[in-house]
Every structure is written in structure tokens, then in C-alpha cells.
Design a protein that fits this description.
Two copies of one chain form a homodimer. Among the domains of chain A are: 3-173, 3-Layer(aba) Sandwich (Carbamate kinase), CATH 3.40.1160; 261-335, VC0802-like (2-Layer Sandwich). In chain A, strands 3-6-2-1-9-11-12-10 form an eight-stranded mixed beta sheet, with helices on both faces. Chain A has a four-stranded antiparallel beta sheet with strand order 13-18-20-19, sandwiched between helices. Chain A has a four-stranded antiparallel beta sheet with strand order 15-16-14-17, covered by helices on one side. In chain A, helix 5 packs parallel to helix 7, helix 6 runs antiparallel to helix 7 (213-222) and helix 11 (353-364) crosses helix 12 (388-398). Chain A is an alpha/beta fold. Chain A is built from twelve helices and 20 strands. The interface between A and B is large, with 37 and 37 residues.
Chain lengths: 403, 403
């Protein structure tokens, strides 16, 4: 008998039919003699609908009240899923974030899970109940409801798996595993049987949209065995775990991320502390900066370019504008008509030719590169959005990833 | 400076415009220097929509999961109302039932408030926050969410007023006070300036639909000064409190209740314990029985007739059917095509002619009476539903209540 944590996203429980499909997956796992803890997101467009409702009343509501509002989405899901499982005749109990003991830090909207007080969870498992937990939400030290931010249900699932020392954490999604590229762009993309945490981390943060990266970080930290698989049809998924022989496949996959925008600070005075000023301002606002390029100084000035998530563009520009005196740039330019295309693979660092092969593929496809960034296991380029799909295909071909 | 509890029903917060009207009422009260605690129900048809969602999945969900689901309705309301008050620039915090310390008994769906752990509430008031509390919901000793049943938000408000020793508990509704009869039926019905708890109790339980009767019982018990007033326009409402001179108005009002159904057990064996058997079965299922009539025994049998709320009819018939052997009636008959019409007035008990004047009015209107029940401060009759409105008008005229 194993303890299995299963996570289902919002599209998996969008309507009654979907809810029963998910309920069948859960009860089948339970019937095989496993303890089952399920994490579920808000149904379909519920979260967007709730945000719409809020904006109608207040375009800038406090994050605290926003979390009170948004957390109802998952609460609806857990009760409906529990009702479906009751209908199928299995013992079940639903728990909200606070009932499940999901203690987070105080940051509304983007809270991180500090710990899980698992007494209630363990008691319910002891009663042989299937336990349905609301994803994406928790409770902070003020006993206020917090949400973990978009994709937070993955993190909820991994945190529960870690706290309960689960044997496996299954993340059910609308794809049936991790591919070498998005199969909608590259039809002969290949499903990976397994992938390392680090590779998955790069893929997640690069817009592969399969797993939220905070959840992968946590899985790595607590050594939680993850599996990404389809909620729609039965098929072996992709295991995410510590992988032994990282050298055997050089490049794991190609990803495209459209959720990116570039900001350029033109002619910033070339003196120490400028970069610190800019990026600490953004960090204080919880805006993650991704690629950063700083030009070589010229005429006592330099240009600083960087990318942020599209959703952060407005906030970032506002912050830069509010502090324009301290930054002292001649102008601030931006565009969100760009995409980030990346290759990921743990063996990359020891194989110096990888980046140049990628650039060759782009050159042959006549695609211009605006920015480049590399890490030990990835190479990313920023290009015009219109070129992004062609770039993914060209790179995938170049590395013959479908083989 | 006073502490005022204000309660707004679901239609008062049905859309953004309504929410801002309510927010204005609240902030005006706050601006006058008062501490304000607000109880709010789920928006418009939210609760019905959620019930619909549940039925689609499971026609007989557990009451526990139903409460998890339904409590989201009020949680949405409190956050939206708080956002509106934030928009108006006032300090505000929303609290769910469990955050507000609304401890209830364990009975899902029909929970009663046991006590209020008011520490958080008092702390928020101490910070000069307007506090918005989710009505209709609480938390039981298992740390599970409970709901108080329909109309429970009134009870939440009164319980909060009692726990916080509020100076006044204002119940905002879609009528502007308590009338001598439903103004839609009797156009010249008169608004009462004040009414006693007991009279209000009878009116509430008789279908006046102004205040939930559990809330009035609680107000009486803890001597909470209530006021019923309009959420739509400013006007003096009706005070509900201990009234000094109860004799000065004989009959307070006439009410009609369509939410009633009659069940008759025909030819039950005439032996001790039969009534106990029947009514204890129903009590166990939490079905309230209202009027009860037992015929005089004849041929060693008797007939037992009683009324229940229409919504309980199916459950009651099911229960009687399941226990038909123990009850041993020849047949069970029922109708829900009836209405209960009642007169209420604290002075009634000392004025023996009141009931007969009521019967005279019905006789003159050629309306047949099926059942009669009297208490110290009310007389109720069960009549055909088609006659109900005519009956109210005739009785209102007979007692010249518009004077």
C-alpha cells in the first residue's frame, strides 16, 4: 500500500462530466489499496471570473481581500469533487487550505508554504478517507487566507507529498508528459520517460507550462518523486526525479515562452550601484527579472536591458518611472512583442558546441537574436514573437530531438 | 460612540451598484464615529446557483460537503464588499465565519451558534477597522464549516451583536419595516414603529419574511435591540425590543404563510404513544411540525393532522412511509395547496373576543377553515391557498389595522 498525492488542474474539473472522470481516476487508485490525497484547482475559468467580479468593484483591491475572494474557487472544486466521490460510494472528506494546515508566509497573492500541520490530514487518512485538499491556498500567521499565486496548486501537491512522505506525487495535466518541444508546434516531438529536477526546473521557468517551477524546486528539495501525466487518457507519463546518467541525452527539449517583455534603460550613467538600484527596486515589488544584458559603457553611459513576465510589465514600468531620478536613464523603452526560446539539458555544460548549434539553426532560419543568456543547463534567446514557432521547429530539427 | 451591527441580505449586494450602495450606508455610519460590524449574505442567486451545481453532480450530497460549497457564497460577498469600502477609502477587513469565531454545534446545514470567540473581532475593531463578517456560516468542534440554514445571516448578526454587546443591530431588508400586513396584499397596511420580541417571533415564524425567527429568539434572550429597515431608501424602520404597554394595540398584524403543507394520518390506532412515535420520528429528522390537530377517537382509531414547511414535505412523507408499521395508519394524505393565515398581538390573550372576530371576518368572506391553532399571542388558521390573500385583506379590515 502506497500513499499517493494526485493533483488535478482547473480544466480537469471544469464541468460535471470532467469531475466524474477525475473521481474515477481517484477511486481507482484508492481501490488498488492506496491512501489517496488529492489536490484540486478552481474549475475552468472560475478564477478569471472572480478577478473580473473584483475589478468591477475595485481595480486595485487589497491583496488580502483578493485572496479571500479567489480562495473560494478551489473551495467550490473540493466540495463538488467530494460529492462526486460520495456518489461513487467511497469515503471522502474535503479540506480547505486552512483545514489542511497549509501554513504560509504572510504574503498575500504570492504566499510560500512554510510548513504543513498535517494532524488533520493524517487523522482523515487514518479513517481511510480519500482526502480532497484545496490547492493554491493556505493560511498565514494572522489566520488570514493566502493564495500561492498562479500554478500554486502544483506546489500545494508537492508540499503535501513532502509533508506526508508520499510515495508518489502525480500531476495530472492536459498533456500526457514532458516533451522535447510543444507537440502543437513540433508534431514529431518526443515524450520523455524521465527528466531530472534541474532540467524540469529550466523547462518550467521557460514556459513549458507543464509544471509550476516552485513545485519542482520543492520536489527537488524534499526528494518528492513526481510524475506528469494526462488527466484525459491513460498513458505512462514522465517521471521527474534525480536522474543518474545526465550525459546520455545532451539537449532535453526546446521551449518557447511568450509571457515575456523586454525593458531597456537607455543611457544610464556608467557608475557603480546603478544595476543594484534598478533590480532591488523591482525585487522589492516581487517582480522577477529574467534575462539581463548590460552594454559596454560608452560616453560615460551604458544601456541596461532585461526581461520580465508580461504580467509584470506595467508594474515594472511604474516602479521605474516612480524612481526615474534615482535611476537617471535618458529614456525607458519596452516591448512585449518578443518570445524567449530556450534549449534545456543537463549535459549541456560539458558540451561547448551546443549553444553555437542553436545559433546556427536560427541563422539558417533567418531569425534575428535580440538577447542571449546561458546557464549550466540551458541556453535562451530573445527573438521577435512572430519568429518563435519557426525557431522552435528549426532548433528541434537541428538537435534531431524526435529521434 | 456606539457599536452598531448591520446586516445586509443577498439582494442588497446582488451587483456592483448594490454593493456600493451598501458600502455607503456602512461608511456613513462609521463616519459618524461608530464602530461598525457588518454581516452580509451571499449575492443574489448565488446560493441557488451553488445548490444547482451540486445537484448536477450528486442529488444527495452529504450535508458536510454542501456546507463547504455553500459557505463560498458569503465569502465572495464579504471580499467584494470589503473591496468597495477600500475603494471609498475606509479601513476594512473581511472575516469568514471561522475567522470571526462563530462556533456552532456540529449539525451541518442547520447549525446553531454555540458561542462567538470574539478576540479577532475585538482586535479588528480596536484597529478601527470596519469588520465585514460572512453571515450564515460558522465552524464546529471538528473544525468543519457549518451553515446555519436559510435566513441564518440574521442570526449571525444578532449573535455578533450579543457577543460584542452592540448598542444596536440593524437588519437591512427589501422592506422598510414591519407592517400590519404584507403591503403587496393590503395596500393600506401600516408600518409599526415598534414591536415586541414575542410578537415579532410569531410574525417571523408565520411567514412575514422580515426576520428569521431564530434571530429574534436570540435577540430576546440576550436583549439585543433590533431595528428592521430598508436597504434601498432612508426611512425610520421598526424597532424590535421589549415593549412596555402591550395592551395598547390588540392585534399587531396579519400574516400569510404559503410555505406550508398539511399531512394527515388517517385511522391511526387509538392507543397511548402514537403521537409520540410520529412526532419523535420527525423531530429526529429535524422536521419542525407546526399546527397539530388530533381528532377525537372513534371506532378505536383517530386521525392526526399536522403541518410542516413545504420544503420538508417530501422528507416527512418519506420518514412516515419508512416507519409505516410502527405508526399503523390506514392511509397518509397530504396537500400543499394550503396557506396559513394568522393574527399576532401581545394583548390578545387577555381579550377573548379576538379569535371569534377573525373567524367572523373569514365567514363573511366565505372562506372555509381547515385547521385552527391558538397561542397566547396569535391565532392561526389553515385555509385553501386560493383564499389566502382575500383572507388577509378581510381580517386586516375587520381589525381596522390601517388606522
Amino acid at each position: 500500500m502506497s500513499l499517493i498525492v494526485q493533483k488535478f488542474g482547473g480544466s480537469s474539473v471544469a464541468n460535471a462530466e470532467c469531475v466524474f472522470r477525475v473521481a474515477a481516476t481517484i477511486t481507482n487508485t484508492y481501490k488498488e489499496g492506496n491512501d489517496v490525497v488529492v489536490v484540486v484547482s478552481a474549475q475552468g475559468d472560475t478564477t478569471d471570473d472572480l478577478i473580473e467580479k473584483a475589478k468591477e468593484i475595485n481595480p486595485k483591491p487589497s491583496k488580502r481581500e483578493m485572496d479571500v475572494l479567489l480562495s473560494t474557487g478551489e473551495q467550490i472544486s473540493i466540495s463538488l469533487l467530494a460529492m462526486a466521490i460520495e456518489k461513487l460510494g467511497y469515503p471522502v472528506v474535503s479540506l480547505t487550505g486552512w483545514q489542511a494546515g497549509m501554513r504560509t508566509d504572510p504574503n498575500y497573492g504570492i504566499a510560500r508554504i512554510d510548513r504543513i500541520d498535517a494532524d488533520r490530514l493524517k487523522a482523515e487518512l487514518g479513517r481511510r478517507n480519500i482526502v480532497i485538499v484545496a490547492g493554491f491556498q493556505g493560511i498565514n500567521k494572522y489566520d488570514d487566507i493566502t493564495t500561492l499565486g498562479r500554478g500554486g496548486s502544483d506546489t500545494s501537491a508537492v508540499a503535501l507529498a513532502a509533508a506526508l512522505q508520499a510515495d508518489l506525487c502525480q500531476i495530472y495535466t492536459d498533456v500526457d508528459g514532458v516533451y522535447t518541444a510543444d507537440p502543437r508546434i513540433v508534431p514529431d516531438a518526443k515524450k520523455l520517460g524521465e527528466i531530472s529536477y534541474d532540467e524540469m526546473l529550466e523547462l518550467a521557468s521557460l514556459g513549458a507550462n507543464v509544471l509550476n517551477n516552485r513545485s519542482v524546486e520543492m520536489a527537488k528539495k524534499y526528494n518528492v518523486k513526481l510524475m506528469v501525466l494526462s488527466s484525459l487518457h491513460k498513458a505512462q507519463g514522465t517521471y521527474v526525479k534525480e536522474v543518474g546518467d545526465v550525459e546520455k541525452m545532451l539537449v532535453r527539449g526546446v521551449t518557447r515562452d511568450n509571457d515575456t517583455a523586454r525593458i531597456s534603460l537607455i543611457e544610464v550613467e556608467d557608475m557603480p550601484g546603478k544595476a543594484f538600484t534598478v533590480f532591488s527596486l523591482l525585487a522589492k515589488k516581487n517582480i522577477n527579472v529574467d534575462l539581463i544584458i548590460q552594454s559596454i559603457g560608452r560616453n560615460n553611459t551604458k544601456d541596461i536591458s532585461f526581461t520580465v513576465a508580461s504580467s509584470n510589465l506595467e508594474d515594472a514600468l511604474g516602479e521605474l518611472n516612480d524612481n526615474s531620478a534615482a535611476i537617471g536613464a535618458r529614456s525607458v523603452e519596452w516591448t512585449d512583442d518578443v518570445s524567449k526560446v530556450s534549449i534545456v539539458g543537463a549535459g549541456m555544460v560539458t558540451n561547448p558546441g551546443v549553444a553555437s548549434r542553436m545559433f546556427e539553426a536560427l541563422y539558417q532560419a533567418n531569425i534575428n537574436i535580440h538577447m542571449i543568456a546561458t546557464s549550466e543547463i540551458k541556453v535562451s534567446v530573445l527573438i521577435d514573437r512572430k519568429d518563435a514557432e519557426r525557431a522552435v521547429v528549426a532548433i528541434h530539427d537541428k538537435f534531431t530531438l524526435s529521434k
